[in-house]
Amino acid sequence: MEFIKITEQPSLYNDLEQSSTLELLEAINREDQKVALAVKACIPRIEKLVEEIVPRMKKGGRIFYIGAGTSGRLGVLDASEIPPTFGMPPTWVIGIIAGGETALRSPVENAEDNPESAWEEMLKYNINPKDIVIGIAASGSTPYVVGGLERAREHGVFTASIASNPGSPMAQVANIAIEMIVGPEFITGSSRMKSGTGQKMILNMISTTVMIKLGRVKGNRMVNMQLTNKKLVDRGTRMIAEELGLTYEHARRLLLMHGAVKEAIDAFREQNPL
User: Fold this and answer.
1) 40-96 pLDDT, tens per residue?
2) By C-alpha distance, which of 75, 36, 56 is closest to 213?
3) Which of the residues are catalytic?
4) Dihedral, CA atoms, 45, 210, 145, 66, nearest 10 degrees?
5) How far apart (Å, rounded) are the C-alpha atoms in residues 181 and 202?
6) What spatial distance separates the first Cα and last Cα of the chain, rounded to whole Å?
7) pTM of whole model > 0.85?
8) What is the DSSP string of 4-65?
């Protein structure tokens, strides 16, 4: 299949500077509505990926996200949300971006052009065949990501890719290639828009489903969330009160004593068997 960069094709909209504010907002929203359908078409591939990840993580494997620019930032963002939302150690899902922490806020010149640096970064974490590497790049051709996936696969690590172009170099070196085809961007080549939105949706789907399968959710509640602010303490208190039929104050004391909703509920039931 010939590799065509749909992400670089001209926008469907012209003379944007002549449009009214309302016209611009409605046009962006019109394009954004295409993203959910593009992601929906990827669900069979996402399902296969999740079903590869879960057994590996149950044996101590980790997820590595690698990317550059917007894609790298989205990987780091998803990884950073896992500890507070699901109470997992930050070492279980690791986001690595070309150019390091500086690149989270500012572009780092030529960082994405080195095909060896992603693997060098992953080696610092003692990456091994129990792990999973997910490369993220709208173009599907970023050397930093392609090189990282190549090295990972050479060393027996399971790989996946998320791109917005079909038949990309990244897909060729991934065990599972997720190709989310959202079409040309509203501003030509600005993959922070539809491609970025779709990447965020897919990463949410992967990490959330994996965490549910690993038992980090009960019913529909984040019972392992970290109690890092008053809002989360209040949310956890209400979960416990509802689950156990306790007063708010009793539930709050239990939560603060045990540090997490699940631990508080389990401890109460152990001390108060039916």
Assistant:
1) 999 999 999 999 999 999 999 999 999 999 999 999 999 999 999 998 999 999 999
2) 56
3) 81, 112
4) 160
5) 13
6) 63
7) yes
8) --GGGSPPS---GGGS-HHHHHHHHHHHHHHHHHHHHTTHHHHHHHHHHHHHHHHTT--EEE
